[in-house]
Amino acid sequence: MSAARDRWLDEGLKVLGEDGAAGLRIDRIAARLNLSKGSFHHHFDGAEGYKKELLARFERLSIETLETAIAEVGESADARAVFAQLTKLIRPGSTALYYPRLDVALRAWATWDPEVRAVQSRLDEARLSALQQVWRSVVDSDEEARTAALLPYLLAVGATVVFPPIAADQLRGLYERLLPLVPDHPGDARQG
Fold this sequence. Notes:
The protein has helices at 3-19, 26-33, 37-43, 46-73, 79-88, 100-110, 114-136, 142-161, 168-178, 188-191. The chain is mainly α. The chain has one domain (47-186): Tetracycline Repressor, domain 2 (Orthogonal Bundle), CATH 1.10.357. Helix 4 (46-73) crosses helix 5 and helix 4 (46-73) runs parallel beside helix 7 (114-136). The chain starts with a helix and ends with a helix.
């Protein structure tokens, strides 16, 4: 992938987070990048092609960020250690795991665009599945793991959609309150 192509996609994600889907105008993004519309057409198959690639980039980056953060803790780490590490990554100025404006923009766009809705659905499922796998090591069934994964995920989604969105440091504080509820070892969840 070329540097100019990456710039178009990165700037598109910034614009989406700032102004929503309505802000994704090629002329506006070109001006922000100081690039020509010809550059855009060299790299993308029109506005629809750009939209597809922009959505694919966001989906890939979102899933990779979460999966990488989980993997960096190590396979032998317990669930609490993994969630503690994820909690540390939620901080002001970081877009790694918590970028409310972009999540809100994508969810709003998904309400009227079926392609975006499909991306949002896959993204929600991938995030929940990753959290479910972490929980699976300390609960008895996939169903219990799914239920346990919903709590932190729905907290994050809710934090993005309230107005104004919950600040990253506040969300991190909420997760820190939940950490003691995460069992250290298999079987601890049943005893608590």
